[in-house]
Design brief:
about 350 residues; Cytidine Deaminase, domain 2; Dihydrofolate Reductase, subunit A; 2 domains; 9-stranded mixed β-sheet; 5-stranded mixed β-sheet; 16 strands; binds zinc ion
């Protein structure tokens, strides 16, 4: 039973994706004798936590049951005063007798503190229910809290015979459903990055118009010699953008030019800038050279490959070599394409 209700917490948590970063996504469910009487999730950064929304959702006729119910929560209720009061107090105030948790708070300063507080107040606490799935769901948050660095996702689409594109031209590899999925990924990520050649050849918009849910992510591009034309989509100032390029003429509201010196190691520079801006995740969308640079620097935590099993290009620009130590975490079909998700074991 614990697992069924915890999975429901995960389903609710996912609804917050794209809205709560750099907070974790969290879902909570209140169950009385096998019946869900309340549900909630953390909906927006700085707003109420999942537990608060869950308890507030209980109907007036069920409120007397709260003190005889079990609270399921995908993450340990918070212990400290942040933008909202600590949820552990809420559990005690409502005299909830049992709490089931997937993951403890990854912040070493608070991990387990709420569990101790609840247990010493007589609450029965069960931990580590579907803990691996819970950690995967919040992998960006866990990584950012524990290392202070953004979670880096490398993404590319390849033909069945392993090519990214025909030489020098934009080549459609994946279908429209996969494209929607990519836009969903963008809306879930804090920043998206492309290299010089992709910015020039593909003229990408790097927006999330096919998944307009969540915030518009920060766009990052390299153009160190300043070759990008003024009418390039990346210079349209339509959403927050960082260009690693010589400064340009014009009035920009949302676009920031980050001047870099020749020969400066670019990955470290970008990661350090992201870290300072509190951005917890980065989606690297290409092209081949940029992806290869991240791979060679071992600067990645996750790789997402979209493969079109029916497309054979026979020649063209080869897809990057998947590192030997990459571990397949998930694979699924989307439309006519196949998606494979790998992680780094470290
Ligand atoms: Zn809380």
């Amino acid at each position: 039973m614990n697992e069924i209700f915890m999975r429901r917490c995960f389903q609710l948590a996912v609804l917050g994706e794209g809205f709560v970063s750099p907070n974790p996504v969290v879902g909570a469910v209140l169950v009385h004798e096998g019946r869900i009487i309340g549900e909630g999730w953390h909906q927006r950064y700085g707003q109420a936590h999942a537990e608060v929304n869950c308890i507030n959702s209980v109907k007036p006729e069920d409120r007397s049951l709260i003190s005889a119910s079990t609270l399921y929560c995908s993450l340990e209720p918070c212990h400290h005063y942040g933008k909202t009061p600590p949820c552990v107090n809420l559990v005690l105030e409502h005299k909830i007798p049992k709490v089931v948790i997937s993951n403890l708070d990854p912040n070493p300063l608070v991990a387990g503190k709420s569990v101790v507080k609840m247990r010493s107040a007589g609450v029965e606490v069960v931990t580590d229910v579907l803990a691996d799935e819970g950690r995967w769901l919040n992998r960006v948050f866990f990584h950012f809290i524990q290392t202070g660095k953004p979670w880096i996702i490398l993404k590319w689409a390849q033909s069945a015979d392993g090519f990214l594109s025909r030489v020098g031209e934009r080549t459609a590899i994946s279908g429209p459903t996969a494209q929607r999925l990519v836009h969903r990924w963008r809306s879930q990520t804090d920043a998206i990055l492309v290299g010089t050649r992709t910015a020039l050849v593909d003229n990408p918009r790097l927006d999330n118009r096919f998944w307009p849910h969540g915030k518009a992510p920060l766009r990052i591009f390299f153009d160190r010699q300043g070759k990008l034309p003024d009418d390039a989509c990346l210079l349209d100032d339509s959403q927050p953008t960082w260009g690693y390029t010589p400064a340009r003429q014009g009035v920009f509201q949302q676009t920031e030019f980050k001047i870099c010196s020749e020969g400066e190691p670019m990955i470290q520079r970008v990661l350090s800038d992201l870290r300072q801006a509190g951005k917890s995740s980065l989606l690297v969308e290409g092209g081949a050279t940029t992806l290869q640079t991240f791979l060679e620097a071992e600067a990645w935590q996750e790789i997402r490959i979209i493969e079109n099993p029916a497309l054979y290009l026979k020649k063209g620009l080869s897809a990057p070599q998947l590192p030997k130590h990459a571990v397949l975490r998930d694979s699924f079909d989307v439309g006519t394409d196949r998606v494979k998700i790998y992680t780094s074991p470290g």
